[in-house]
Amino acid sequence: FPSHDRGAQNPSENKPQFILINTLWMLAACLSKPTAVIYPALLLGIDYLNNKPISVNLILEKIPLGILSLFFGWLLLYGVDTQGGQTHDTGDTSHSFTGIDTVLIAIYSFVWYPIKMIIPWPLNAFYAYPFNYEPLPWYYWLTPVITIGMIGSVIYGFVKKWKIYVFSWWIYVVGIFLFIKVFTTVGAVTYDRYFYVASIGFCIGTGYLCWKFLEIPSLKIITGIIVLLFISGYAWAVNQRCKIWKNSYTLMSDMIEGNPNKVPF
Predict the structure, then answer these.
(1) Residues of the chain above pLDDT 90, percent
(2) Which of 4, 26, 78, 200 is the most buried (most CB within 10 A)?
(3) pLDDT tens, 76-133?
(4) Which pLDDT value is given to residue 39?
């Protein structure tokens, strides 16, 4: 990680040719994968980690990136609403949630990913929406409490000046923002593959907390044991999951088994 006492800004960073090159690279990235639209927001987090003071130049250099981000972000959401997910829509499990259910589904899709990162069970390639004619499962109602806990931990980290920890949550929020069920309700409520970028932030934050615990002599041994147990469990889970992804038949069969009467294809 960069040194926290390095507040000086490289005088070459704001030269027009560097901004132009950076913008062209982002254009290429967005044409390759629309999730690259989060790049300007990630840069803000890096500026925070590097102790860069807020200045006009710091904002101006991100304007071209912001324009690209807004355009491709709109294109992504438009494509999802008009094209993606249509084959997944049964009429019973998407598009028609209202009121508090809509809010709870959005919050659930936000907290589901870090929880699944810690406890990756059960896994599935398709996590279907609940039926809209039934009450939401009880665990949906717990997600606001978990969200408050997450926010509290970030505030605590900010007060304690754990800049790396705060930065890690910024990566998570930015990385998962487009995929929480606020902008669209097509397809499934969550997808494993949506977590790829956001998981970087989660891993940084978790590693930072482990490092903090290892600094406490009385917790050093137990922290090491817990980490080793988790790594061993993950290794076993990966081995088992590879059997599901062996071929299309095993994968689709698992999707159907995990979502009774909810997989339309």
Answers:
(1) 56
(2) 26
(3) 777 765 555 444 445 554 557 778 998 999 999 999 999 999 999 889 999 988 888 8
(4) 94
The residue ranking higher by pLDDT, 229 or 9, is 229
Strand partners, 127: 190
The span from the CA of 106 to the CA of 185, in Å, is 9
3-state secondary structure of 265: coil
Tokens in use for 247?
Answer: 């071929």
Task: Kindly list the distances between the CA atom of residue 96 and the CA atoms of 107, 120, 179, 255, 263, in Å, as whole numbers in the listed order.
Answer: 17, 29, 18, 23, 17
| 190 phi/psi in degrees, rounded to 5 | -145, 160
**CA-to-CA distance for 169 and 174, rounded, in angstroms?**
8
- Helices 248-258/217-244 angle, 10° precision: 110
Alpha carbons 43 and 171: distance in angstroms, whole number: 10
Q: How far apart are CA 45 and CA 163, in angstroms?
A: 10
Cα separations (Å) of 186 from 44, 69, 183?
Answer: 30, 22, 10
Using 50, 70 and 90 to split pLDDT, how confident is the model at 184?
low
Task: Tell the residue number behind the tokens 């977590």, with chain if given.
Answer: 195
Amino acid at 215: E
| Angstrom distance (rounded) from CA 109 to CA 220 | 34
Band of residue 138 on the pLDDT scale cut at 50, 70, 90 = very high
Neighbours of 243 (CB within 10 A): 9
Q: Hey, CA dihedral for 154, 160, 161, 164, is it positive or negative?
A: negative
In the numeric block, which tokens belong to residue 145? 């409490």
